[in-house]
Amino acid sequence: STAGTSANNEGAYKLRVVSANEQIVFSAIGFRQQVRTLDPASGTVLNVTLMPEVYTMKDVVVQDGREDPA
What we know:
By secondary structure, the protein is mainly beta.
């Protein structure tokens, strides 16, 4: 199944996990994604720290007077 949640401004979150050995994906823009497996029977509190992810782009050219393709 697919379920989602968001962290508050302090980073706290709640997610109800009902199936055994659910994979939980933690992600945020600008950070490396983490996947953890959690057994709901353990009642575990899961603290996660996401590591920064550096993205590089090829050269970007900005031109005036052209149509916006978006």
